[in-house]
Amino acid sequence: MSGITLNRRKIILTAASAAAGLILPPGGMALAHAASTASTTAQGGASGNVGYYRFRVGDIAATVLSDGLIGGPPQIYASNAPEAELEEVLRQAFLPTDRLTLNLNTLLIETNGRKILLEAGAGQTMGPQGGRIFDNLAAIGLRPEDIDVVVVSHTHPDHVGNLRTAGGGRAFPRATVFAPLADWDFFMGSDPDLSYMPVPEDFRRHFAAAIRQSLEPVASGIELYEAGTEIVPGLTTLPALGHTPGMANFLVHSGNDQLLLTADLAYHPIVNVDHAWLPGPDRDKETALASRRRIFDMAAADRLPVLGFHFPFPGIGHMLKTDSGYAWVPANWQF
Ligand SMILES: [Zn+2]
């Protein structure tokens, strides 16, 4: 009997993660936190490879800080892909066909004496492989209290999860947190309607609760912005609505140098750039598609360096316009 129960549980979890593209543990954050702590080394990964990557955008020092990984059944991230075609595409990319792994590439920028974190990362809200940002901060000699500003593109758990400590406090105690106003209204208002997410009711409840719990410690003093506004000199937000009501993209700029952060316009370049399949968790798929095309066109036309939050680490490359759509061209590693 217990075997049957376990199997059923596994099936439900798989369905839930398939729908949202994320693993949300039914036991809550504490359970996942224990698993993460056990499997994380000082360098943030079992391999011992570093999880940070430094570069510059003009006068601005930039460092990709990995928060680790999330993932789920590939169909989640390519909701309108024919099953056989999706499998073949993944096979040709030498990727597993039963699970797509996504990175969590947060970006630290240092400008005018301020340390600004773009995206907080998932922490333990979406499975045991998240929450590595703190190890990676330590690896470059920084503590959470050194962060002055945190800006999130939208408030899904994998972007806000690290704002809360295990004890319920502010994980970045000195930081002013910026979040999109429309996301705040939608997710923090009374009971968000998540029926667009094709997941069991239980999963939706956990998803909404993870957002509320992550944002609650920073609610006092939070800065709610509308995409299109400048956060600080050198950091502008661009409207990229559709995935959520308020999702923004970020443009980091200094002199003639720019970097575009595309947040969740695409989850994985193989399925959402090289192939134009639609991410399942997009709340308004038409609006999200229009945002994707507008911003990808701009990136291609202006030859902008791009950072994809969920792309293979460190997530930097360029968007190439092709006859049929776009192609992702990863940048060479800089030593
Ligand atoms: Zn995301």
TrEMBL record:
InterPro entries: MBL_superfamily_lactonases, Metallo-B-lactamas, RibonucZ/Hydroxyglut_hydro, TAT_signal
Pfam families assigned: Lactamase_B
Domain Metallo-beta-lactamase, first and last residues per copy: 103-310
Entry keywords, A to Z: Hydrolase, Metal-binding, Signal, Zinc
Domain of life: Bacteria
Signal peptide extent: 1-34
Family under the similarity heading: Belongs to the metallo-beta-lactamase superfamily.
Name of protein: MBL fold metallo-hydrolase
